[in-house]
C-alpha cells in the first residue's frame, strides 16, 4: 500500500464521498484477485477504472454491487461503504442493487418489448399502476437520451434495436430503478464510434444526478469522460487521482508505462 | 484416366445411396399415412357413417362382417378416454416437470448435471410395459385401498398417473435444454436490477424459455396419446364414460390394440378401428405442426 498514490483521499477530504473502500481483498478460491484496495469514490463524479486485461478492475466494479455474490468460491475481506453503511455487513444485496445499478459490457436487453425492459425494475419493486409506469418509462428513456428514437416503438421487441440503442436502453432500464450509483463495465467496448460518443455524452449528463463508475479499456475514453481515474495492475490499485493529473503527470512509473503504451 | 473415372463413380454412388434411403423413408411415411387415410375413411365412405356419429356418439356396436353394415360406430367413449387421461396426465406432470427442470438448472446445477440428468435419461429408456406393470401391481391396488374404488383400482386416475410418469422425462429434459439455453446475460441483468432468484426465474428465465417448454409439453402429450400398452394394463377397458376419476373407461389405443386382431378385415368393426387410428394420426400430426408453429413464432419474436 505504501507505494500507492492516493492523493485524492488526502487532498479532497471535504468532497462528498459516495463509496468508501478500505483494505479490500478478494479471493477466487486460493487466488487473490484484489490486494488491499482503498479508495474513495466521490458523489456526482465519473470515476474511471483503467488497466490491462485481468488487472482486477471489472472484479472490483462487481464488488460494488455484490454481483460477485453470484459466483462460487469468492471471498472478500475489508470494508466497503455506501454512504457510510457497510454494503456487505449492514445491507442485503437486493437493497444494495436498488441503490447501485449496473450496465454490462455486452448490451443485454431482455427478450421483451422496449417498454417492458424499462418497466422491469419498477415492476419487481411493486409499482403496478400503468400511469406511473408510463411516466417512469418515459423519464428513464429521456434520461438515457433515447426517448425520441424509441417513443413510437415502445411495444416492439428490444432485440430489434441496434447495439448502441440496446446499450442506451439498458442504461434507461438501470435508471428506472432510480439508483444512486451507476456502474458501467466497459459499456462501449461492443459499440461503434458514434454510439460510443453518444454513451459518453450521456455519462457526462448523468453525473449531475448519479455517481458513475466506469471500467474502460480505452484510455482516451477515461480522459474524455472521467473526473477521477484509478489505475489497476495485477490486482493492485497503483494510482488514483484526478484524471488530468494522472494522465499528464503520472506519479508511478508503472502508470506512466501503461498510459504511454509500453504495455497493456 | 481410369483412376479418376472410378473416383467419379464413387462420388456418385454415395449420394445415390443416401438419396434412395431418404426417399424410401419419405415414401414409407407417406404410404403409412395414405394407407391409414384410405382405411380410416372406409367407415365413412364404404359404410356411410357420419363423422359426427363417429366423434360424438357413444353407441359402439359395429358388425363384424366384411360386407354387412348396420351397426353403430360411435367412438366417443374411446376419444373421451384418450383426451381425459392425457389431459389429466399433463396436469399431474407439469408442476413436477417444470419444477424439476428449474431445480436442475437454476437451483442446483451441479447435482442436476451429475445426478438428475443421468437418472432422467435412464427413465426415458424404460419400456412402457414396465410402467404398465408397475401401475398394475403397485398403483392399482394403492388406488383400490386408499380411495376404495369400485373396480378394484382400474381407473382413469391410474392411467393418468402412469402416463404422467411416462412423459415426465420427455417434458423435463426438453425443458431443461430450453432453460439452459437462456443466455446468462439475462440473468445477470435481472440480478443487477435487484431481482430475487425467484423473480429471475419466473419473470425472465421461464418467459424466455417458454417456447422450448411448450415443445416439450407437446412432445410429451403426443407420446401420451400414442401409448397403448401401459394404459391398457391399468385403465380397466370398460366401454362406458367414466363417472369420476376412480372409475374405469377405455381409450383409443387400448381399444385398437385389443380388438384389431379379432375383426374381419374390411368389415365395419375393422374399419372403425382404422378410423380411430387415423384420428390418432391426425392428433399427432397436429402436435408436430404445433411444435413447428411455436418454433417459427419464437424465431420471429427474436428477430422482430
UniProtKB/TrEMBL annotation, chain A:
Purpose of the protein: Part of the ABC transporter complex PstSACB involved in phosphate import. Responsible for energy coupling to the transport system.
Protein topology in the membrane: Peripheral membrane protein
BP GO annotations: phosphate ion transmembrane transport
Superkingdom of origin organism: Bacteria
Location within or outside the cell: Cell inner membrane
Protein name: Phosphate ABC transporter ATP-binding protein, PhoT family
Keyword Metal-binding: no
Span of domain ABC transporter: 19-259
Annotated organism of origin: Lachnospira pectinoschiza
From TrEMBL, chain B:
GO cellular component, one term: plasma membrane
Membrane topology: Multi-pass membrane protein
Domain ABC transmembrane type-1 per the UniProt entry, residue ranges: 79-291
PROSITE patterns, per the entry: ABC_TM1 (PS50928)
Keywords from the UniProt entry: Cell membrane, Membrane, Phosphate transport, Transmembrane, Transmembrane helix, Transport
Family annotation (NCBIfam families): phosphate_pstC (TIGR02138)
PANTHER family: ABC TRANSPORTER PERMEASE PROTEIN YQGH-RELATED (PTHR30425:SF2), PHOSPHATE TRANSPORT SYSTEM PERMEASE PROTEIN PST (PTHR30425)
Role: Part of the binding-protein-dependent transport system for phosphate; probably responsible for the translocation of the substrate across the membrane.
Protein name, as recorded: Phosphate transport system permease protein
Organism: Lachnospira pectinoschiza
